[in-house]
Amino acid sequence: MLAYRHAFHAGNHADVLKHCVLQQILLYMNQKDKPYWVIDTHAGAGMYSLESEYANTKGEYHNGVARLQGRDDLPPILQDYLDLVKVCNNKGEWTLYPGSPEIIRRTIRAEDRMRLFELHPTDHDLLAEHFDRDRQAKIFKSDGFAALKALLPPPTKRGLIFMDPPYEIKSDYAKVITALEDGLSRFAEGVYVVWYPILTRGDHIPLVESMRALSEKTLNVSITVQEPDERGFGMLGSGLCVINPPWVLKEKLENILPYLVDALAQFDGAHYELS
Ligand SMILES: C[S@@+](CC[C@H](N)C(=O)[O-])C[C@H]1O[C@@H](n2cnc3c(N)ncnc32)[C@H](O)[C@@H]1O
After folding, report:
1. Where does S-adenosyl-L-methionine bind (predicted)?
2. CB of 112 closer than 6 A to ligand 1?
3. Structural domains present in the chain
4. 3-state SS of the chain: helix, strand, coil percent to 5?
């Protein structure tokens, strides 16, 4: 049933946008003294090899993070992101790509905590091994959607909830909204970040509309970088919809999106949306 493995996609254009935005939100949260929790409801394996068979089946990172490596004109936010990817790699070689748990771990402070959920047995075990004996992280092999009921509000009353489901099963869209409704009823002031793919069938449109209906304080960012394949399918781009975003986020993203789209574009019609 759990067919999705993020190892096939690590470092692709969606990861670039996703992890860059995640890092910036955390950096903003670090500006306030009070500790916070990060709940990653769909954590994946935590770290990925770009030399593995998985990563090289389609080589998606070539049209993602690899397009930023070696550029000497990156805007500061993208430089922050690339620097983080770089410190995960030894001796200047680009062989590893950090998943969201590692992006979070390397950005939070000693007083902050992370709670990571991953259902796939193999990826759960890899994640648990990766964070073995890490006092700030707790790993669970259970449903990340359901987890919010037990964990919200976090004890520190500050938190970021990062929801990154695979959407291979269409019911994930409805589950996101149900989990958000419930989460907001328990912890209205939390920062909720939902990632979504842009597919030809446009399933993300009602998702974003439903999120806007849940909260007036919603910021949506997306990039479209790729055309449909010859059969009319494919992930054309991706986006993140954020409830209770940091007030600076929109302006920060405005400054990098033209550069990012240009760097990741695979066709002339590549574009971004931010509203
Ligand atoms: C897109 S990947 C996560 C990637 C990761 N967030 C990152 O950015 O590196 C989605 C993950 O969710 C897991 N998953 C699917 N349904 C789940 C659920 N209900 N609860 C927890 N994990 C789930 C999958 O096994 C997969 O590893």
Report:
1. 19, 42, 100, 118, 143-144, 164
2. no
3. 6-274 (3.40.50.150)
4. 40, 20, 40
